[in-house]
Structure formats: C-alpha cells, structure tokens
Amino acid sequence: MELLLRVLGAVLGGGGHGPGAGRRGPGLRRRAAERRAANDGVYGDGGSEAKDLAELAVALCGAVTGACGLLLARQGEAGHPPPTWTVVLAAPLCASLVFVGAGGLLRWWCGERFLRGVLLPHPLVKLECAAAGALFGGAVLLPTGPAAERQWGALSLGGHAWLLVASIRALSVVSRRAAGRAAREKREEKREEKRDKTGDVEGAEG
Q1: Please, where are the H alpha helices in the chain?
Q2: Fewer beta carbons below 10 Å: N end or C end of the chain?
C-alpha cells in the first residue's frame, strides 16, 4: 500500500521531479488518511450510504462469480472441460484472492466498522457464498464423470442467471446512489438560493 501511494504521488506530482517533490508523497498520504477517516464516519454507521455500498460490493462479487462459472461451463459445453486438478486448485485460490483482496481494500478505504458491522452481516453475503460454491462445485464435479451436454448447459444457465442478476443489482445500486446524490445537490442549491434571497432582503431593509 505504501508503494502504491508513492507511485500515485509520483504520477500526480509530475513524476516526482522539481522542488517540493519530496513533500507530495506525505501530502497524498495525509489526504488519503483524511478521506479514510471521513469514509469511516459515512459508511461505519450502517446508514443508507453504507447499505448501498455493501450491496454494490456484493453485486460486483456476484458478477465475477457468475462470469467465472459461465466461462467454465462454456468450455465444458464445447467438449473441452477444464482439468479437475486445475479447477480444484484455481477456483478456491482465485475466489480467495478476490474476496480477501476486496475485503482488504474495503477495510482500508471504508474502515473496520463498515466491513464487520455492515458488509459481512449483509444477508446477500451468505447467498453469494452459496452460489459460488454451487457453480464452482459443479465445475469440479462434472469433469469427474460422464457429464452430458445438458448438465453443462444447466451450469452455463446458472452462470448466466447469476451474472445477469448481479449486474442488475449493481446497476440498480449505482442508479439509486446517483439519484440520491442529485437530490442532495438539488436540496443544497435550494438552500443556497434561499440564503441568497434572505441576504438580499436583509440588505434592502438595511
């Protein structure tokens, strides 16, 4: 993470050359720390923003799960199922890397309270784990026996469905967040207009 922040500091600071280049890295780290502290206050309380972010994170993981299951099933449908040892080793490893990496990123950016108090207790997390187990379990078990094409087709259909549902959920959350942001900006504009009108009236009376 330290290396990433240094690289970002160098890129944003024009490659780290010139006077004051040594101060840009600490400045970037300070701004990142301030943003993390602000995010912890916004997302750690379990409010609507936190719930939307948790649902979006679960939906994106679901889209990755569905896409991976679909890819494995399509290979089986084409008569080239992945080797069992590859699926047994690669599927758990990739899933672990995705979930651990996403969890670490969310913990670093949104805080421990959001991860443990909002995201992990989310009811869709267990459903997502069950769907991932079903899809990858099918991809592991089918190559071990004389799997028919329709069985691979059923697994492919499951991957398609999960990818579609997860994508719809993600788009729904994104649109809801955008609508909420637009509504807040509109309310803020109305407050500004009201304050300006109040100031004009007071100035006229004075």
Answers
A1: 2-12, 21-43, 48-77, 84-110, 112-114, 123-141, 149-205
A2: C
pLDDT of residue 184: 79
Give residue-wise pLDDT tens across range 62-75. Answer: 888 888 888 888 88
Task: Read off the tokens for 189.
Answer: 């504009």
CA distances from 57 to 73, 105, 129 (A): 24, 11, 13
How buried is residue 52: exposed, middle or buried, by Cβ count under 10 Å (0-12/13-18/19+)? middle
Per the prediction, the chain carries an average pLDDT of 75
CA angle 94, 132, 110 (to 5 degrees): 70
Stated pTM of the model:
0.66
Token output for 143: 């190559």
Q: Give the residue, 143 or 63, on which the prediction is more confident.
A: 63
Q: Pick the closest to residue 54 from 155, 144, 122, 116 (CA basis).
A: 122
Torsion, CA 135, CA 66, CA 164, CA 50, rounded to 10: 110
184: its two tokens: 């807040």
Please choose, from the candidates 69, 74, 51, the residue with its C-alpha nearest in 3D space to the C-alpha of residue 165.
Answer: 69
- Please name the amino acid found at residue 2: E
Q: Give the number of other Cβ atoms within 10 Å of residue 114's Cβ.
A: 25
| pLDDT > 90? residue 168 | yes
CB 163: neighbour CB atoms within 10 A?
Answer: 19
